[in-house]
Design a protein that fits this description.
about 325 residues, alpha/beta, Rossmann fold, 2 domains, two-stranded antiparallel sheet, 10 helices, globular, binds calcium ion
């Protein structure tokens, strides 16, 4: 009897994990030949600092999200830029990859979705190559800086031994991530940090203002230069007791004076139309990490991406 109960429970949990992202949204119920997320232009996912497209060719940064969107009808590409470098360097690398994607698909534009630092990279692409971009969406991106970056920047003086050591370890880690994900893009930890401070983002926003809210916590313009701008983010920190990365998010969140996702403050994440800024997601949950361990008490990150693909499709993008 106990074995039977265990079996039934396992089956129910498995069904929950497979169908979970769809359960709250009957419109998205479709498991073959779907068009719910079938956008006109391909969706291009851009990773954050220390990110990657796939590790060892299998482990995805946007965990399970590309396949899920494709199951719902979307065409999805993941990109890979330097794990640690300035927004401009990363943005230029992204442009090269988008040119390849437009050549492969025959579609002239893409829908860009960037997580964390990736949200700034995609803004750079939209500013420099608007001809390639249908929409820009950021997820948990520090458009007005990250308090943790400010703390690190302020507490390690230029050229100090400590700054050198931190940069060395960060770049070594980034190089290893690059190698196991199959790339050798140049790394620069101090440039990455400088891009994510309040001062760094303010300078970036002055040059590339599209979609950035004028007020400290408002929304930005919905459309600039024919390109639509959106954002969403979370304010969860400890969201799943099984996910050990929650501990790190809990520690980093202590650097923040406002609601945050462990690394990015709620207001700093605003860009264009703010779809929602308080999902019960931490910074890693936003891309369904680690291994899909997220809160079961709010929308599944995969459903959030899927709903957004449907939104883009309905806008004719
Ligand atoms: Ca998590």
């Amino acid at each position: 009897m106990r074995q039977l109960r265990g079996f039934v429970l396992t089956v129910l949990v498995s069904i929950g994990l497979i169908l979970g992202p769809d359960l709250r949204d009957a419109e998205a119920w479709c498991w073959w030949n779907c068009n719910y997320a079938k956008t006109k232009y391909p969706i291009v996912l851009a990773h954050g600092a220390a990110g990657f497209d796939e590790l060892f060719g299998v482990y995805e940064y946007f965990y399970g999200i590309p396949d899920y969107l494709e199951d719902k009808g979307a065409t999805v590409f993941t990109t890979e830029v330097s794990q640690l470098n300035s927004t401009e360097v990363r943005g230029e690398q992204l442009i090269d990859q988008i040119e390849v994607i437009t050549a492969i698909t025959g579609k002239p534009k893409v829908n860009l979705i960037g997580h964390s630092h990736g949200g700034l990279d995609v803004r750079y692409v939209a500013a420099v190559r608007p001809d390639l971009v249908a929409s820009v969406t950021s997820v948990g991106s520090p458009h007005k800086g990250a308090d943790l970056a400010d703390y690190l920047d302020e507490n390690f003086e230029d050229g100090s031994f400590t700054q050198g050591v931190i940069a060395f370890f960060a770049e070594s880690l980034a190089t290893v991530i690059g190698l196991v994900s199959g790339t050798t893009n140049p790394q620069d930890g101090l440039e990455a940090l400088a891009s994510l401070t309040t001062a760094g983002t303010a300078a970036f926003n002055a040059t590339y203002p599209a979609g950035v809210p004028a007020s400290s916590c408002g929304e930005g313009a919905s459309v600039v230069n024919g390109i639509r701008y959106y954002s969403w983010s979370g304010t969860g920190v400890l969201t799943n007791a099984l996910d050990v990365s929650d501990v790190a998010m809990g520690l980093t969140s202590l650097f923040y004076g406002e609601a945050n996702d462990g690394l990015v403050g709620r207001c700093s994440s605003h860009l264009g139309d703010v779809l929602r800024d308080n999902y019960f997601h931490n910074h890693l949950d936003e891309v369904n990490q680690v291994f899909g361990l997220v809160s079961i008490f709010d929308s599944n990150p995969k459903s959030v991406f899927r709903s957004h693909a449907n939104r883009l499709k309905n806008k004719g993008l």
